[in-house]
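Protein: Monovalent cation/H+ antiporter complex subunit F
Species: Streptomyces durocortorensis
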Amino acid sequence: MSAPEQIDRILLTTAVVLIVVAGALLLARIWRGPSMLDRAISLDVCAALIIAGLGAKSAFARDHFYFPIMLVLAFLGFTGSVGIARFIAVRDRPGNAPRPPHPDGTQEGPQ
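Structure follows.
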């Protein structure tokens, strides 16, 4: 094995180790939360880590088979992020905020 091939193997191994560590930290973030937005962002980062892992596998095998799969995963991650952002934007509109209760314990206005 030549010196450039050894360097490639070392760099790819380092990249895979970093992806695995990032995946472990990502699972901790999904588990702990604390908010739903944190979990949604973590799932988007999970898609990016899967794409990075497939890219590392492609580079390691010197095969371009996974490129279309990576493209589809990137598209799904993007559409998922946009969908979550739209859901949160609708949920956080000023008209959708819960009304504060009256001092006597009843709700304001019609329900």
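Remarks: The longest helix spans residues 3-32.
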